[in-house]
Amino acid sequence: MRKGTGRKFARKRDQRRALKKSLAVGLITRGTIKTTLAKAKELRPYIERLITKARVGNIADFRHILRYLPRTAARKLFKEIAPKFRDVSGGYTRIIKAGKRKTDCTPLGIIEFAYKNIDKHESSKETK
Hints:
Distance between the termini: 45 Å
CATH architecture: Alpha-Beta Complex
Strand content: 15-25%
Helix content: 40-55%
Oligomer: single chain
Largest sheet: 3 strands, antiparallel
Structural class: alpha+beta
């Protein structure tokens, strides 16, 4: 059983953690970010675990999230983002392929929160 097999991005462990943290903060503050497809795919499970913790909304989970995010991003995650996903059990983000970068042909992707799917899902529940 292979554990801990993630992308290394030619960085050391602390640099990878800082990269994930900065990508997560960017996604939380802006709602959508454009990055390489590999980074977006690596960010998805990281941010979805944080959202799952924030959905509960108690002080212990807030303190746990402070280990991974700065206070301003953690507050926004708790106050604005997590309540939108209260009734959803997963799939909080979506990755859209955005072509290739001109300079080195690296595949790009846009990662964003999947609010629109939630709105459609809620409206279909109301009509039934």
